[in-house]
Design a protein that fits this description.
Oligomer: single chain
Shape: globular
Strand order of the largest sheet: 5-2-3-6-9
């Protein structure tokens, strides 16, 4: 009989939750019914979970000098592209092509997680995350969030922590 992979043993698991489990990190999964008509994935997650939008972080993929880079910022604000470029020693940043972001991370838009990506991208976590005991990020699909300590997220993604979000 063939041995099942860890992914198959975890019903509903995503590459992000599998990576967290493998790392032995404490986390909580929050599932909610995704509404395709909602104008903002992140705001929808905050509302559905009853969590302050300052604690729910969105994962954005940007192109910094030709390299795809992940920015993890609060859904309550926006990404400062110039600050992102500076944080990684780059000169120019622009939002990445959504198809390239999906292809590279292995996740669909609205469900891109900073964890368990197909190709691990350079990551910058907004410094505001340090002001919270836990934050929520996408667990790898729409309607699924994972709550964890910001230090654990930074460590697992080798993130640079810098002020890249704007209120």
């Amino acid at each position: 009989m063939a041995k099942k992979s860890k992914k198959q043993q975890q019903p509903g698991g995503t590459p992000a939750t599998v990576a967290l489990t493998a790392a032995g990190v404490a986390f909580t999964v929050h599932a909610y019914e995704h509404d395709p008509a909602h104008p903002s994935y992140g705001e929808e997650a905050a509302e559905a979970m009853g969590v302050s939008p300052e604690r729910v972080f969105k994962t954005l993929v940007a192109d910094v000098d030709g390299d795809l880079t992940v920015a993890v910022v609060p859904v309550a604000g926006s990404l400062d592209l110039k600050a992102l470029a500076t944080a990684v020693g780059g000169k120019r940043a622009a939002m990445a092509d959504p198809a390239a972001a999906e292809r590279t991370t292995g996740y669909v838009r609205g469900g891109i997680s900073p964890l368990g990506q197909r190709k691990r991208l350079r990551t910058v976590l907004d410094a505001s995350a340090d002001g919270h005991a836990t934050i929520c990020v996408s667990a790898g699909r729409r309607g699924l969030e994972v709550e964890l300590a910001p230090g654990d997220l930074a460590r697992l993604t080798d993130a640079v922590v810098a002020p890249v979000g704007r209120a």
